[in-house]
Amino acid sequence: MHFLETVRRRWQDADTLVCVGLDPEPTRFPACLAGDPDAVFAFCRAIVDATADLVCAFKPQIAHFAAHGAEDALERLIAHVHATHPGVPVILDAKRGDIGSTAQHYAAEAFERYRADAVTVNPYLGRDSVQPFLDRADKGVILLCRTSNPGSRDLQELDVGSRKLYQHVAELVAREWNGNGNCALVVGATWPEELADVRSRIGDVPLLVPGVGAQGGDVEAVVKNGRTADGTGLMISSSRAILYASNGEGFADAARRAAMSLRDGINRHRNP
Ligand SMILES: O=c1ccn([C@@H]2O[C@H](COP(=O)(O)O)[C@@H](O)[C@H]2O)c(=O)[nH]1
Question: Residue ranges of the alpha helices (H) in the chain?
Fold first, then answer.
């Protein structure tokens, strides 16, 4: 099934807009995993199994695996999600971007090697650099628009005529790059006003919204400013606040409680 169809099904059937980010940091793992040579996989699998019914997607961040030489664990983790929790899509957060001939390989890496359902992509090399991703109509292409970090002001707020650069990106993606209906945009939860502005420019194009939890984004403002008319349209992502809710043996149960609390907090504000 098409990535965005899968997400829409999760929004409706599982009644959740939560995306759990999988950012393994071995120094924060519980003591019970110490000495496990496959700890990255074991930790992430436990989180996945404890939260799968609560999410509309999982979002592994590739650097958190590659930095530990754990690309193999990432491959097995995504295979595990597909096998054990069918219908739960996986977004590979890789923020890729390069000239077209290289971008083809990034697309193959995301969709063939890792079997991700969607990938985050940097739009700043332009249309030809994104085309190998856009051509995969069954896969999601999630373009950086207004990122959650403070420094996103440096470039994304630049005036490019009658609007700011992130506003131009939002409109370009929604109007010109989304011919296959497989695009979404990243807007940080730390920018609630910009979230409303982007929503007003892009119709029902879905938004991946990182920045609640550890980065302090306000859930109510995110939902009210970013939702579509039917109370969906958002994949609200939290990593550290869920993954490291506890560093004891019950870490997976604690992660489940944190994900459930986020889901319920979101759902309180979904419908006007
Ligand atoms: O604008 C962006 C784009 C991506 N991210 C990624 O999301 C998670 C956030 O982790 P938290 O622990 O929930 O803060 C992380 O993987 C980032 O690389 C983002 O934060 N902002």
Answer: 3-9, 39-51, 62-66, 71-84, 100-108, 127-134, 152-156, 165-172, 192-202, 219-226, 240-243, 251-267
pLDDT tens string 139-174: 999 999 999 999 999 999 999 999 999 999 999 999
Active-site residue (options: 59, 95, 139, 164): 95
Three-state secondary-structure class, residue 211: coil
ipTM of the complex: 0.99
What's the whole-number average pLDDT of the chain? 98
Mutate to test the pocket of ligand 1, among 215, 219, 222, 262 (most ligand atoms within 8 A of CB): 215
Domain boundaries, the chain: 3-161+195-266
> Which class in CATH covers the domain with range 3-161+195-266?
alpha beta
pLDDT band at 1 (very low <50, low <70, confident <90, very high): confident
Residue nearest to atom 1 of ligand 1 (CA): 147
Residue 102: partners with Cβ closer than 8 Å, 6 or more residues away: none
